[in-house]
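Recap quiz, item 2
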Amino acid sequence: MRKFLKKIIRNSRSQEDGIFFDKLCKILGFKPLNIIFYTKAFTHRSTNKLDKTGNPFNYERLEFLGDAMLGSVIAAHLYNEVPTGDEGYLTKMRSKIVSREHLNELGRDLNLIQFIESKANPLHFGENIHGNIFEAFIGAIYLDRGYSYCEKFIHNKVIDSYVDIPKLEGKVISYKSLVIEWCQKEKKQFFFDVFDDTGVEDQKYFGVKLIIDQKIIGKGRATSKKKAEEKAAKRAYFALQEKIDKK
Amino acid sequence: MRKFLKKIIRNSRSQEDGIFFDKLCKILGFKPLNIIFYTKAFTHRSTNKLDKTGNPFNYERLEFLGDAMLGSVIAAHLYNEVPTGDEGYLTKMRSKIVSREHLNELGRDLNLIQFIESKANPLHFGENIHGNIFEAFIGAIYLDRGYSYCEKFIHNKVIDSYVDIPKLEGKVISYKSLVIEWCQKEKKQFFFDVFDDTGVEDQKYFGVKLIIDQKIIGKGRATSKKKAEEKAAKRAYFALQEKIDKK
């Protein structure tokens, strides 16, 4: 019965909504319960839309909410991850992670701009729109599924992929150069192998392996070849850390 | 068996810990699972304590965590409560609520300073210690019981008792004067009746009724007579709002 109802609901949804829903599921990693929050997160003020009660229907208030959720999830992560860091250190690291530049990168990598509904000229959006809708998207997740889903999403999409504490501390600029340097010193053969290159235009995806002396030492996936190489190198670095640090 | 074990655990705890535990339960409104977080929240850096891993054991890092949790819970509350407020409004209101002055008041009213462990002269603490340990206390709740308990505590102790949006907007300075003014205009008899006056010194508690024309219109409880009167007047104001606003 439930399946049957679901089918009806599914079929009655317009095709466009269906595509939006499916794309959302892929990015979120779970099914949204109430799609209206996400629609709001991608509605630009230039549409002049209002909700049922006559209040503006756009993503600006959701940015405020998402920013707050990001702040507390990142705070808890840093608190647990860096037990040696004092209050000043934690505050500084958090602002690096939630910097405008970083949020823009996150929004751009998820290609959230594909969903935007606007009457303004997209050329006039400016860089910050990526970060703004990323924050609004987080706010929508909170309203749709609560704090725990919001937390999981931020862990999967922000922390695991982007928060690299030694790098943020400025101790490591690039894992790729660290690993290459070590290979050269140790006279080891190495190369990066692109094993996956999928998607089109805005949604490209790359998979890269780092092979050292004929063995796969690290793999990485990202939206650019450069980023995928850096991820593979980072994993290789941690696998080889003891050997590298001895040098 | 569980009861029996609990009894043993309870009895084996030193008397002092037992008192701390009981007082905590009263303030928290639930039983803490791991008391160590709360002990940390009340340990001043002057004790020079270290944890098992050699890191400083004091409340300073917990302040960072508590501040972030307060920020997100208050953000979500404002988002839901004031659907007409734009991003700038929400940001401004949040900073009023989590202002240093306000946090100090919250910490002082809960008398958290009674738990402090310090080697410094308490006279040198300054006003901000109340707000600081209040934030650390919120951080401890998060670590002990997670976001949902933290959220409930902030709703009970911060939002319900202190967050008065019209007042924060500067639209209402005092509900007491609003209600008194109305009673005088309407030639109604009114008086505040203190029906509860308990606790000693730092932990005084007052209960006040506002009686208008022989009827109890509002009740309030707080740590001072003045605050309890204001609470009672606020409730009376909302009960009478339609009548008052007509004038």
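The first helix of chain A runs from residue 2 to 12.
The two ends of chain A are 65 Å apart (CA to CA).
End of item.
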